[in-house]
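Dear H.,

Thanks for agreeing to be a second pair of eyes. The structure we're designing against is below in token form, covering all 60 positions.
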């Protein structure tokens, strides 16, 4: 877990507020928590999307 990533307690509060997919389909490639941590990293640091660390998923 990175220095600015969500803690388990913060994630437990946030996760129930996120919308769930209504239909079946291909499973997501990246965990929601990982994506949200990546978005938060990008906003916090101001780096371009291509410079976000690979641990948060691909920039594209």
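And this is the sequence the design step returned. I haven't edited it by hand at all.
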């Amino acid at each position: 877990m990175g220095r600015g990533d969500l803690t388990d307690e913060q994630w437990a509060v946030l996760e129930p507020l996120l919308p769930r997919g209504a239909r079946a389909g291909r499973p997501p490639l990246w965990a929601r928590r990982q994506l949200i941590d990546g978005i938060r990293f990008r906003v916090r640091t101001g780096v371009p999307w291509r410079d976000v660390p690979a641990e948060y998923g691909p920039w594209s």
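Two observations from my side: The helical segments are 8-14, 32-45. The two ends are 22 Å apart (CA to CA).

Warmly,
E.
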